[in-house]
Amino acid sequence: MKELIKFEWKKIWQSPLTILATLALLFTCIVLNSLNFSINGFTRGESETRILDYEYLTQAVEELDLNEDNINIIQWSLPHDHPLLAAIPLIGFTSIYNEDNFEDMLTSEEAFYEQYKKSLSLNTQSANDWNWFEYTEEQMERINERINQLQTPLQLGSNNGILSFLLQYNHLYILVLVIITFLLSPLFAEDSPQGIDELTLALKYSRKKDFNARIITGNLLSVTIYTIFIACLLIQNAFVLSLQGWNQSIQSLWVHAFYNMSVGTGVSIVIFDGLITVLLIANLIMFISIKVKKAKLTTIISVATLGGLTQLANTSNPLYAQLNPIFFATRRFGIGANWGFEFYLFIGDLMIPYTVAFIILSGCYFIVIRYLTIREYKRYTLN
Amino acid sequence: MIDIIKVESKRILNKRYFLILVGITFIYSLFSAFTAISHYHVRDSSGQIILQSWDNLRESKTHRFVLDEETIHQVVAGEKSSPYLYDRLLTLLVAANYDTAVEDLTPEEVSEFYDRRLERVKLNLSRMSKDEDAQVVEEKASWLVTPIELGYAEGWKNLNNRMIDIVTVIVLATPFVVIPLFAQDPKTKMQDLSMSTKFGKRKFVQAKIVAGFGVSSVIYVTSLSIYSLIQLMVFGFRGGNLPIQSSLNDFFSPYQLTFIQQYFLNIWIGWMALLLLVALTLLVSVLVKKVLSTAFVVLFLLLAMQLTPKSFELNYYIGNFFPYEMINFSAYYANPYVYRIFGNIIPLYFLVMIVALILVLVFVTATLILSLRNIKRPLK
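Output (structure tokens, whole complex):
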């Protein structure tokens, strides 16, 4: 089996399209990101990671003259490498739900974090208005308990490189899916050099082995392309902006999150979820290929499916959005889209973070696609 | 030569697919027209229809007048507040020019109507031009004709505003049809066959290029004709010679154009965008030689152009000339970029045509040279 996989792997990399696609991905990412850097105006942040304690809060309020009127707009006028910039989104978010005076929440570190936790709770409730279900009182209690377990004070600092990476990832992710669509469409086609021919089907016991080897190769190829994509983005951002900030609290980038984890863990989860979506799409394309058997028609159907899924991800219906892997892979970060790290589903007494629910949902999709694909093994005939 | 063109054209688009395309365009055009009609229903605050769109349009067809001071005074006095289209549009146009409510306008503000509009036009222009061009541009804006003539032109307005949808689909999808002209299908042996001929290689390549442009142009013209005819038959052909400033979208447009002129400009620009993409596709197919690989490169290029970051500078020099941006027709009239070349102000809608034409010539020449070289070289 290993030999067969190696053989299929070599075959797919000998195709000019694979090399062309990989080079196109690299070239496009490098060029578009370079343009992005010059437009965004992000600069290398020099400030170190600091703890958001009373001293930091007081310094920010005094030096920047913060009040409830300017707190949510001042960050757009500060330079990207300002040493106090990191604290502004958190203070701003906290003040939105603050019913007392702005100054009252800044009297002490405890007062600030108490209000921050209240804001998290209120934000979760108000975000839930958009959702397809409503939290019951008991469920909100449990969420509040989880919020109270948040360890404070938080660690913040400059993280422009990671921020830039996330924004570029969101923006360019679709390129990976398009490439995989084209590379995997001919895999089971009868009219393609990489596809199936009479010899493959002639042997009694090797059909299943061969087909499985192709599926595994397809998945490996998808992982490779995705890895190249992520590596390209990380290297560019590390080089231009530096990737400092991995050990900061996740709230440094996802203001509404109430997990006790670092930015590094959060970004790793984003990359992992993106990988799951890539594998799902890859297996879907391979199923279409095995069903349709013609390379060009498979490509057209696959591109149309991908286009359809991407369009559906723009829905305002929360249930359809959450069922769509592309929505989850590309909406994790952006203005107004701090997604998934503060969102829970309840099944009876079980409290499941959406990040975990997404993995289970993807697993179900995968099982369905796999079952449908295996069914086609025996039925595959050449016309 | 003509025979080769015919054969190549039939190879990439046979009658059956062409008829299917005509059918789909026809159905879509009807759907689009009847969706547009429903926007002319007048509803009360609870959502009930108080005036049917047909009645609204029929009544509005007979009204044609000039937007002068007297008319504006009537609007301010509340004499033009019927639910019909001609009054509603008039009120909206007047309101668009002021920050205060229309009923509260003073006679002095009314007399300044066109001056205010001119100031706004100049402000828009200065924002969309490079700093050094702003002053020259402001001087040029003064030659807008006033007062504006208003009247029924819903056929042309809807056509010009909504045609962007069908043009986008046609311009982005049609280039894929011409890929098989130069790209080699592994099953056929066209390349071997053409290499074995003694004479006529250049003719063959030229015929293919002509076939590519010809077929895509036929698709474009057919689809747009069906779409335009249906929109105009549903809404009526009148009002084509009214100025585009009589439409709410283009009220602040700095260009003195009629709806018919706008329509033909849109058609022409759409056609140039299509030719540009077809020329690019032909070149890529000659370079890459395989059908799927060509399709991939073209789609990837389109995506990459779409994902290019947008900023004033990037758009000014590059972004505005991408095919997908070229067919964003509303950007030419309402709040257009301003270009000054060799001291003259050139509207963007002319500039994109010139740039597209130059690029088409470059791509076609490259296609010709490379394709002949492919044929003459020994088989790999």
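The first strand of chain A starts at residue 50 and ends at 51.
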